[in-house]
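Hi team,

As requested, here is the filled-out complex form for the zinc ion run. I kept the field names the same as last time so the parser does not choke. Let me know if anything looks off before we queue the next batch.

— J.
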Amino acid sequence: MPKLVIRNGRVIDPASGLDAVRDVFCVNGYIASIGEKLYATGAEEIDASGLIVAPGFIDMHVHLREPGFEHAETIETGARAAAAGGFTSICCMPNTSPVNDSATVTSYIVDRAKRDAVVNVFPIGAITKNSAGEELAAIGSMKQAGIVAISDDGKPVMNARVMRRAMEYARAFNIPVIDHCEDLHLSSDGDMHEGGVSVRLGLRGIPSSSEDVMVARDLLLAELTGARYHVAHISSERSVEMVKFAKSKGLAVTCEATPHHFTLADSDMPPYDSNFKMKPPLRSGCDAGAVTQGLVSGAIDAIATDHAPHSGADKMQEFEKCPFGIIGLETALGLALERLVHAGRLSLNKMVELFTTGPARVLGFQGRGRLVSGGPADLTIFDPDRTWTYDVNRSHSKSRNSPFDGHTFRGGPVATIVNGEFAWRVQ
Ligand SMILES: [Zn+2]
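And here is what came back:
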């Protein structure tokens, strides 16, 4: 589709400060102009009156499961779920099989995504070979093949010396190190947050300190090395405080929060419901409140879903045995609108920033996460007031592990445009 004009939407672009009713004219996959009553002869016309037109949302933390676990998700189905959630770009974590720890695997993902994905897919490479935490992966050649960051997500890098070296390399290649902050000795074999609820249910607890000690260690190493360092799925009050402090000292430190960590607490979990089991676990109400406050204060840079599909068979095992993780691409915007915007905590502009310029800044993306003439025509159109109910059985994801099945939302995506073409439109 060569020409598309989106008329009369409220265009919000946090990068330029634009918040006004405008037309957006896209030609051959790029934004040609943004203005009033644009002359767009021969273009397909979309009426966006009453809707928000934003830069394409970026989810910097997604698990696509391909290669290796295609029964749970593929690049194709994960990308469709992303589009249905309003995301035009996603970053996929390397814990596939094989692990994305070499240029060969990176190239495979890049090629598959070109063929199968309706959104832009940016691979994240492993920090260490096989994410085993011992030897550094082939960071330089993965960067050449297209990775945008390194992470052993799913696992922490337990060895501080290895983490230091990884930061030194990442700095040389100018990419961020993203850590899944968890001290495995402190987590032990925990299944949920350590607190009153875990005691009552007789489940083994994962203390907040398991996250906090790793954040503390990593911040010290970030200061030592000068690396760009990013905390994945921050969930505890102390960790948010520490990141805020590190930022105030001028360190190149950033972090992200998931919708479930600012929406739910451990006490919201129906007993032994595996669709509420993830890492880090749902923490106390105080922690969830601190994460929300971190989004408001700017201590937290991005909203990221940690979309983690698992097959029904895997998730149906007893609570202690089933894997950690929930899907989240299709519910992220609805939850952010409900808990942040409609709850009066955050302006629409600020929420859009957390989905666009925020992650773009963390990743060093130049033309994305903002609306600029000549830039890619990636747009998210949403209705902040549309009422809809999430039916997980109609999810575009291959997996069904969501705690938000049946939830009725106020506000959600209406259309997702990638390179000037519709990747998804509401039915
Ligand atoms: Zn993780």
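Two things worth flagging: The longest strand covers residues 3-13. DSSP finds 14 helices and 18 strands in the chain.

Thanks,
J.
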